[in-house]
Input
Amino acid sequence: MELNPIITVNGLHFSYHKNTVLDGIDFSLHRGEVVSLLGPNGCGKSTLIRSILKLIHAKKGEILINGKMINDYSHREIARHIAYIPQYHNVPFNYTVLEMVMMGRVSKLGFFASPSKHDREIAYEALTKIGIDNLHSRPFGQLSGGQKQMVLIARALTQEVNTFIMDEPVSGLDYGNQIRLLELILELGSHGYTFLKTTHYPDHALLVSSRVVVMNKGKIIADGKPNEVITSEMINKVYGIGADLVSHDNRTYCFPVFNKGVL
Amino acid sequence: MTQIKTITLLSASMTALIMIALVSVLLGQYPIDFVTLMGYIDFKLFGGSVNDTYALLDNIILQIRLPRILLAILIGASLASSGAAFQAMFVNPLVSPGILGVLAGAAFGAALGMLISEQWYIVQILAFIFGFIAVGLAVLIGSMVTNSRSTIMLVLGGVISGSLFTALLSVVKYVADPYSTLPAIVYWLMGSLTMADLHGVLLVSIPMLLGIFGMIMMGKYFDILSLGDEEAKALGINVAMVRAVAIVLATLTSSLSVVMAGMIGWVGLIIPHIIRMAVGPSHRLLMPLSAIVGAIFLLLADSVSRLAFSVEIPLGIITSLIGIPIFIIVLKNARAAWN
Output
């Protein structure tokens, strides 16, 4: 682990209409980590991610990217350090896959410059790396959810950065595409890419993360190795349900336990 | 869309525009044949031999037809490119240059000018000023509530601002002299290029061309703005700045079009739709192609307005009558072009 973190968050507070969403967050992300942010709805995961991307501004606390205050960065400069991969979504205009992927290059282009042949090649490379180069001329709107998510990852790759932020990347995907996406994250992680992603699934955190951060009510309540952080007690405390953790083949799996007699 | 295809499409449509403009010069109540026109151009540009009809041609071509044709091209290109820009900025394929109240504001300004002054330049200046005031009001209302849905608030601000200036326009109409000023306001609002004079057209052509080219240059940013504010910011765009520049350029060009020719509807809405259906939504091609095809459309519509009937039909009426059926066809086929 390097000494200088990519992202450092110190004492971050955020409130929205007098509701405290983030209540003193201290967090850092180091090169090569695959970090899963776990926590129930409304715990502040997305708010933390959006603060790091400078999409919202916290009143108290500071965020540093590569040692520099986030307020000293423009969005263009942040995009040259961190790529955001949103949940797949619909776009009002039906761009082709290649056009969509090329949009990742905008932070690299001069104000009046058009994407060059070089930018086009980088876009093709990214599609090839993800294994979806055969889709390049298809309209984005006609792809399946899984394909759309892959296109958005390819777009992030064209930003030529090492750090990716994802907000609940598997949401809305079918089971096969969820697993394929996790596999891709694992593979990119093993190639040295850094990931910070939110997730609703302790199992997914166990499968691909090098580190798990658990948030509850605007605070970080646990931070460490997946096996050490994800325990029956933690799940019971954070989600209010029972869970068993079972080891098999050097892997740990999380099983929910139903409360008998709900009715 | 490959580079070659882009260049081919743009040069083909540009050639078509020039051809149609040349033919429009020939047609009218006093038809001119092609050989005479060539001789006249030769005389004007290269000092060729004189012909005794050239004094008449000076009047017909330089005073009447050329200003009108140039104005049609400028206004068609302005309205179509600002329509395409607004549709990208507000992530909504159904908005048009009127969306921020600019047309209503400019119309009120012009009517007010006709009410208080006989001077035509007062009318034009007031139209321009109130076009900007209407947009400023829309932006002010839109920014009163600051949250992530600010685009919707901005459109709502435009609706409110537009309604206000439409109401104020009614007040002006109500107090205007029903025998002189009121008919002048009503005819002017129907939209027409008959007021075009060469000097005025050349004067407005500078800011209008700057606005059109500015919007064309912003094509790659419009692609990204259409993904929504948060994603655009995360991709590295200064959303507030890009949007402000685009609003200023679109307001500038569409206010000037109202200043020169009154209310001409539908061009800004249908032309970007037609282009999007034909070549796809990427704004790097959509913007320049919309400008050229918008110019062709308005030039053709103005030719119909000049030539089709013994009495000239106001241009705004022609664009509506042509635009509405086209828009219905577009809506029917629109699903392929936008989700």
Q: What stands out?
A: The mean pLDDT of chain A is 92. The two ends of chain A are 50 Å apart (CA to CA). Residues 93-159 of chain A form one domain.
